Each structure stands twice: as structure tokens, then as C-alpha cells.
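testing teh design pipeline on a random one, pls ignore if ur not involved
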């Protein structure tokens, strides 16, 4: 069976404007489609221009590359890579994070690099809750290498397409109040991620307005995965599939595949995207030509994680570190035997309430594990989730002393939640640590130095120092890059 890219090259019906943009052939514009919410999204993707860029996205790109490079050393990434190499015909075009002599077809490279970005739950988080970058960036990097030399997108092209993919995800999630909270049905990157990827890829491929709308509709048919696979090795596949399926949707749309023209509209009796949210109330996007758009990222910053775990863990870890600091300052030291019991006051969210995690992925989704690790070590780090740290007797002893409460004023919402850790000592004294906003949250964003420190640690675990610095320089000056595929040379 031919790979997606081989089919692209041989099909006479494939139509990608980016491949033709230097041709002298004039193509007559199609009649303007009927104005619907779905078509307004297609118009936005097609017409938005570089003047609308949001430069916070550079931080997101750099962080995603870093966590993806570190993730290329994970077991789940290795499984995904082996699957792609063994089960699909090779088409050696697109790079794989951290693997210098490995190439895959563009769609599979988008998949496996997406898995890498989310393999340790170290990637960025937005509000409403989703992981936006990993669903978009791997697909765009794969396209950059897929396109022929006379149609290579620039760094500015990639940056704009990335922002389009982020924006579409944010707009869709703001059509539902239900999406504001930590999810319990669908994992958000599997719902909005494929559409964000499809939008970004459609933009980078220079698809027309109708094709952009169809790409969203095709992606909607490929969207959705249940929360039950959180805290397992299957969860990283959610990001990989979002990147891959969005790219496939854009390629299918470019070939003329038909799809619903009302997929984002609210149509009684025939659910489109509203199938994912019970309170879905969509609104049309204004035309970028008629009204200068303000990107959501300009007002809603992103959260960057300091350690590889579910975002909620950062509240409880910081609260536990505060309680530990009080103990050390009052007593002059710390030992687990000083503690009689530990009370966590945290939001009610079943999939991150795991008293005795049995794997690294469960530990990344356990309030109890992260609180006890922070109490024991004074921090949570990449190494905290290694087998040697997971099975420590002193950690297991602390876990056995943990109780939880779910205060009514502590909702499962990344914009409103808090965490309290109350440590009762054997002396009867009670020490309390509380965190309302951790360092790295959008209300308290990482400094440039902190973000670069994280990136260097992550990328440096896989790449030599000179290539790490080359990536930083390339991303920070990406708008000056004539051929954005040159970025991928440093990622292998």
C-alpha cells in the first residue's frame, strides 16, 4: 500500500496551492460559499496574515521541542516508533525527534513526534484545559520536509500556521462552559487537537477557504478519545493521533474529499462538533480582512510545567514544598518518621486521585504521589518518576498516611483551583502549605531564563550542546528563516 506522501506525488487530482503558488496559471475563484459558522472558520484560516502573529507562541514552540526531544528517550515513544517502522511502508522524508538516521512518512512522523511531546506529560497546558502545541507543531514540521524545494514554507509561514492551529483549538473550547473544567469524558486534545492540526496544516499548505472548512469537518470525524486511558501509555497516543489525523484531514481536503459544511454549526437533530459538548454554543469568527483579529493567546497565556506530570500536580507539589520548608525551619531537619498523617485539600477529579500509583504514568496523575515526593525530596523532577524513586520504602510509607478532602470552594478548574497540604507531626503540631498559583501557571509565567533552563535540560539529555543552542537561536529568530525545514535538521 502506498504511503500518503507517495499517493500525493502520483495522484493527478491532488491540488495543493503551495505546490503551485509560483506557477503563472490563473485559477478562477470559486463563488463565495454561504456564510455559516463553519465557513467563517474556513475564511479565518485562509485569510489571516502575518501581521496577526502572537510571539508568545515562540516560547510554546521551544518548550514543545524540548519536551519532545526528552520524550524521544521514553519507553512509550520507542513502542510508537517501532510500530511505525514495522507496520507501515517507509517513505523516508520527515525527521523523528532525537533519532539522527530515522525517517518516516510525514503523517507517521507527525504521530510519533506528537507521542514524544506528550510521553511524559511535560508539554504545555492552556485554559480551557488542553495541550495545544503537541497537536500542531509535529504536523507542521513534517509538512515542512514534505514540500518540494521550490515550495518550502518560511519560518514566518510556520509561525503563522502554528498560531492558527492554537487559535482554532481555543475558539472551539470557548463555545462550551463544560470545557472550562478538568475533563471527565473526552480528553480535550483528542477533541480540539485534530481540528487545530487540520487548521494549521491547511494554512501551511495554502488551501482555499472551502478546503480549510472541509479539513475541519474531516478532522471532526477523526476526533475523540475517552479519559479512561489517562495515566496509561495510551494517553500520549492522543497527542500523536491529533497531529497525524489533522495532517491527514488537510491532505484529504486538498484532494477534494467532501465533508459536512455545517460541522461546527449547531444543527438540531444532527450533531456535528456539538456531539462532544452538551452546552455547545458556537459563534462565527470575524473575517480577518474586515476586522483585525485579536488572538486568544494575547490575553490567555500558556502554562509551562516545571516537572513532567499532570498540571494539577504542580499545585499540590508547591503546597507540599511550603509545608516541608516550615518543618525544616521549625525543627531543623526532615525525616518521614516525624509525620503522623498528611491531609490534601484538592479538587474532586477521579483520574488524578490515585492513592498508590503502580506505574510512572499513574504517578504523573496522582495528587498523593506528587505531594509525598515533594515532602520527601523538596521537589518533583524528571527522576522522581523512575522505578528507583517510585518504589522507595520511605515514599510508600508516606503514601499510607495520606487522606484527601475536596472542599466545595475548590473546583476542578485550572483557573480557579488551589491545593492545601496539612502535615500533622507526631508532636501534634500541624503545618500547612498552600498554593493558589504555581510558578509556570499563566498567572505566574516562567521567565525566559527558567524556560531556557528547562529546554536545555530536556534537549541536552538527547542532543549535544551545540545543537541545543542552535535550536534556541533558530526558534527565537524563526521569522527570519527562509526555509523552516532547516529547523528539523537540529532536532535529530
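output:
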Amino acid at each position: 500500500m502506498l504511503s500518503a506522501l507517495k499517493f500525493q506525488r502520483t495522484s493527478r487530482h491532488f491540488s495543493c496551492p503551495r505546490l503551485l503558488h509560483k506557477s503563472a496559471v490563473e485559477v478562477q475563484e470559486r463563488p463565495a460559499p454561504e456564510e455559516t459558522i463553519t465557513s467563517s472558520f474556513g475564511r479565518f484560516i485562509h485569510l489571516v496574515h502575518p501581521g496577526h502573529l502572537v510571539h508568545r507562541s515562540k516560547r510554546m514552540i521551544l518548550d514543545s521541542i524540548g519536551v519532545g526531544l526528552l520524550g524521544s528517550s521514553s519507553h512509550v515513544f520507542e513502542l510508537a516508533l517501532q510500530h511505525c517502522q514495522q507496520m507501515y511502508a517507509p517513505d523516508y522524508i520527515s525527521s523523528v525527534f532525537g533519532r539522527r538516521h530515522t525517517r518516516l512518512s510525514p503523517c507517521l512522523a507527525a504521530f510519533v513526534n506528537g507521542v514524544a511531546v506528550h510521553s511524559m506529560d511535560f508539554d504545555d497546558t492552556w485554559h480551557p484545559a488542553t495541550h495545544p502545541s503537541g497537536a500542531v507543531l509535529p504536523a507542521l514540521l513534517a509538512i515542512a520536509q514534505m514540500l518540494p524545494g521550490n515550495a518550502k514554507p518560511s519560518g514566518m509561514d510556520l509561525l503563522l500556521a502554528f498560531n492558527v492551529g492554537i487559535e482554532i483549538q481555543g475558539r472551539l473550547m470557548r463555545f462550551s462552559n463544560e470545557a472550562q473544567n478538568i475533563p471527565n469524558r473526552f480528553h480535550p486534545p483528542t477533541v480540539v487537537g485534530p481540528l487545530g492540526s487540520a487548521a494549521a496544516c491547511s494554512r501551511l499548505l495554502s488551501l482555499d477557504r472551502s478546503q480549510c472548512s472541509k479539513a475541519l469537518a474531516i478532522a471532526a470525524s477523526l476526533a475523540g478519545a475517552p479519559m479512561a486511558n489517562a495515566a496509561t501509555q495510551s494517553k500520549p497516543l492522543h497527542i500523536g493521533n491529533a497531529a497525524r489525523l489533522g495532517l491527514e484531514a488537510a491532505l484529504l481536503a486538498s484532494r477534494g474529499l467532501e465533508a459536512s459544511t455545517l460541522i461546527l454549526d449547531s444543527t438540531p437533530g444532527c450533531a456535528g462538533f456539538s456531539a462532544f459538548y452538551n452546552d455547545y454554543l458556537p459563534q462565527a469568527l470575524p473575517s480577518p480582512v474586515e476586522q483585525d483579529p485579536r488572538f486568544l493567546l494575547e490575553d490567555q497565556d500558556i502554562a509551562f510545567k516545571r516537572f513532567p506530570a499532570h498540571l494539577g500536580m504542580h499545585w499540590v507539589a508547591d503546597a507540599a514544598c511550603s509545608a516541608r520548608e516550615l518543618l525544616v525551619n521549625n525543627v531543623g531537619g526532615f525525616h518521614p518518621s516525624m509525620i503522623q498523617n498528611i491531609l490534601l485539600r484538592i479538587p474532586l477529579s477521579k483520574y488524578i486521585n490515585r492513592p498508590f500509583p503502580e506505574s510512572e504514568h499513574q504517578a504523573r496523575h496522582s495528587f498523593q504521589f506528587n505531594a509525598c515526593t515533594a515532602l520527601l525530596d523538596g521537589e518533583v523532577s524528571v527522576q522522581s518518576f523512575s522505578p528507583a524513586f517510585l518504589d522507595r520504602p520511605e515514599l510508600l510509607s508516606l503514601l499510607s498516611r495520606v487522606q484527601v478532602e475536596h472542599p466545595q470552594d475548590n473546583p476542578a478548574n485550572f483557573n480557579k483551583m488551589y491545593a492545601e497540604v496539612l502535615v500533622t507531626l507526631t508532636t501534634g503540631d500541624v503545618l500547612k502549605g498552600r498554593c493558589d498559583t504555581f510558578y509556570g501557571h499563566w498567572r505566574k509565567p516562567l521567565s525566559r531564563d527558567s524556560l531556557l533552563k528547562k529546554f536545555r535540560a530536556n534537549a541536552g539529555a538527547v542532543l549535544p550542546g551545540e545543537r541545543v543552542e542552535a535550536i534556541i537561536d533558530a526558534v527565537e529568530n524563526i521569522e527570519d528563516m527562509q526555509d523552516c525545514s532547516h529547523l528539523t535538521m537540529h532536532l535529530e
